[in-house]
Amino acid sequence: MAEANGRRNTADEDIRILAFLCNWCSYAGADLAGVSRLQYPAQVLDVRVMCTGTISPYFVIKAFQEGMDGVIVAGCHIGDCHYLKGNYMTAKRFQFLQRALEVFGIEKERLRLEWVSAAEGEKFANLIRDFTRTISELGPSPLRQGRKEVAVR
Amino acid sequence: MKEKVAGAIRQALESGRAGAVLFLAEEEGKLIPRLVRDAGDPAIERAYVGDKRFPASAFAAISLPAVDGVLAVVGRECDRRMMNELAKLNHLDLERVLLLGIPCSQELADACGCDHPVPPEPVAEAEVRPAEALDAPSRSMDIPERLAYWMDHFSRCIRCYGCRNSCPLCVCKDCALEREELAGKDCFPPDIPVFHIIRALDMADRCIDCGICELSCPADIPLRELYREVRGLFKEHFGYEPGISAEDRSPLSFLGEAADLGAHE
User: Fold this and answer.
1) What DSSP letter does each residue of A53-74 carry, written as one string?
2) Is the dihedral of CA A125, A126, A128, A133 positive or negative?
């Protein structure tokens, strides 16, 4: 799997990414990527939600707290939401949260908001490859390192 | 000042503009909130006008069901803003409250870094200049340094919930900070930084920067700085500042139109 993004090192293997995928578009997109046998890094943990509008910013913060190195929120394109306007809230919340993360001292690149439709398996695979590369360049989340230190003590 | 406030309280009751008045009275060296219905009440003479602060609007929200007609509240500009926000949260009926605004002293305004020390129609005029904003050490830091700064402060947290309990605008019955799946089970110390970030995110479109959280924090966590940074960012991002008016609504409280979404299509 790791060859797919052209790198193979321990840092790469070690990172953990959480992806919130909307049931109607992005999860189907991920499914298409799978059925089409597109290769992408395997460190991604998918969470299927009915709509990205149901994801609270708390969940993203909690993911970082629990040691995730990056979080992806992927939903339907604007205008294509199964619930008509659910992703409007997603866009507002997470554009703001990306900037707010910097206030707390977390790099904003660790959270990504993308629109992936059910037909965009290729886009999904590319997104995961690209995001994994970004996160491995950033390195493991500082919160995770902090947790380890606390555990040792 | 004290006479003017007492006069305004009596005038509000005698003219029938208010059915009751809520103010802080100084009794035997203690400050006690008083709800007075009669203009001849001796407590009016003891109305407190000074630098000690209390969230008058939160007491107003509690006292309102016990009052017929309009409740007048002696409060500062912060209280006016709190009332606007409480009204947006459906916790206060603005038609039924009347603010008898008192200006803050210059010392208080400077200590608070307050840019709004005088309410729109004060009962007593005062020459108070808006103070310079307090400095925020975290602003000039780079990102890893900033995390270290906050974690250092958060690590002192004793999970007393003082910030939440004293906050006049923390009114949710189901509080995210008590959810074990979010902020940890009744553990000590709390999970940091998630505990504080959850509150900071809630404050982004709600906080009116009264600073009561920081006053009540036994661990001296610079909560005001944290909330002010988030709120400043919210204003920059959405152009919305809480408290200023009762009409506008937080962009996160409604879905809106695709055209408002900005960078993402």
Assistant:
1) GG--HHHHHHHHHTT-SEEEEE
2) positive
- Domain span at residue A97 reads 2-152
Q: A111: which strand partners?
A: A71
The answer to whether the Cβ–Cβ distance between A143 and B193 falls below 8 Å is yes
Domain CATH for A90: 3.40.50
pLDDT digit string, tens, across residues B100-145:
999 999 999 998 888 888 888 888 888 888 888 888 899 999 999 9
Q: For residue B130, is it within any domain?
A: no
In tens digits, chain A (153 residues) has pLDDT values of 444 444 444 445 688 999 999 999 999 999 999 999 999 998 899 999 999 999 999 999 999 998 899 999 999 999 999 999 999 999 999 999 999 999 999 999 999 999 999 999 999 999 999 999 999 999 888 888 655 444 433
Which residues constitute the domain of residue B142? Answer: 137-248
Nearest to A104 by CA among A53, A136, A152, A57: A57
> How many angstroms separate the most distant Cα atoms in chain B?
63
From the list B146, B252, B265, the residue facing A92 with the nearest CB is B252
B194 vs A contacts (CB less than 8 Å): 58, 61-62, 64-65
Assigned domain for B15 exists: yes
Asked if B191 lies within 8 A of A65 by C-beta distance, the reply is yes
Which regions in chain B score pLDDT beneath 70? Answer: 186, 259, 262-265
User: Is B123 part of a structural domain of the chain?
Assistant: no
Number of separate domains in chain B: 2
By a Cβ cutoff of 8 Å, what residues of chain B touch chain A?
138, 141, 143-151, 176, 181-182, 191, 193-194, 197-198, 200-201, 204, 226, 229-230, 233-234, 237-238, 251-252, 255-258, 260-265
Backbone angles phi, psi at B121, to 5 degrees: -125, 80
